[in-house]
Design a protein that fits this description.
Elements (H helix, E strand, L loop, with lengths): L3 E9 L3 E6 L2 E6 L2 H4 L7 E11 L2 E7 L2 H10 L7 H10 L2 H9 L3 H4 L7 H11 L19 H13 L4 H11 L9 H14 L1
Parallel strand pairs: 3-5
Antiparallel strand pairs: 1-2, 1-4, 2-3, 4-5
Helix pairs in contact: 2-3, 7-8, 7-9, 8-9
């Protein structure tokens, strides 16, 4: 397994980054939240895992080892492949996902595209005893006044080539969707959708 890659960020898109490692560009598929932390031309390190298929070798990258470990764990549930696992982490932070499984919160799990009620029930049955105790929810980090998520989304949009003015307009358009526990990846997607309509 390729445990991590470290190098200069050579390119960014909504769902992937190219990391230049010793002159070799590694295409790494990531969640929008992970992409939001990367900056073109700057050094970055991503925890990674390589998924081998008959017709492809796909590298997935994560902000930290905890996110990567959850990606690997959820794939041990029946019917969950890398794309759905990545979608789960794009919508839910690792602790939130762990809590949803531990507490049998089917509503939270079905908020992930590609997971229906039966899929959520199967995930809970197969993984509940393996995720450990539900982490305690906190109001720190990206909660409260919402400023941290605004800065992250702004930087992500600018790194993708949008002007500061356009990026701030898009952020204002999606601010009502932030809620009490803002999800940077989801808000970034909404902001990009807003920009594409404009």
């Amino acid at each position: 397994m390729i445990a991590h890659v470290r190098g200069q960020v050579a390119a960014l898109s909504l769902d992937s980054a190219v990391i230049d490692v010793g002159g070799l560009g590694h295409l790494v598929h990531c969640t929008p939240g992970t992409i939001a932390r990367l900056r073109l031309g700057e050094q970055a390190q991503l925890a990674t895992t390589l998924v081998v298929r008959e017709d492809s070798l796909t590298l997935y990258g994560f902000a930290d080892a905890d996110e990567r470990d959850m990606f690997l764990l959820v794939q041990t549930a029946s019917g969950i492949g890398p794309k759905v696992a990545l979608a789960m982490l794009a919508v839910l932070a690792p602790d939130r996902l762990r809590r949803a499984i531990a507490e049998s919160d089917h509503a939270v799990l079905t908020s992930v595209p590609g997971i229906g009620r039966k899929g959520a029930e199967r995930i809970v049955v197969e993984l509940k005893d393996r995720v450990g105790p539900a982490p305690v929810a906190t109001s720190g980090g990206t909660g409260g006044d919402g400023e941290p998520w605004r800065a992250q989304v702004l930087e992500a949009l600018q790194s993708l080539g949008w002007s500061a003015r356009d990026a701030e307009r898009a952020i204002d358009a999606v601010a009502d969707s932030a809620g009490d526990e803002p999800d940077v990846g989801q808000l970034l997607r909404l902001a990009l959708r807003s920009l594409s309509k404009a």
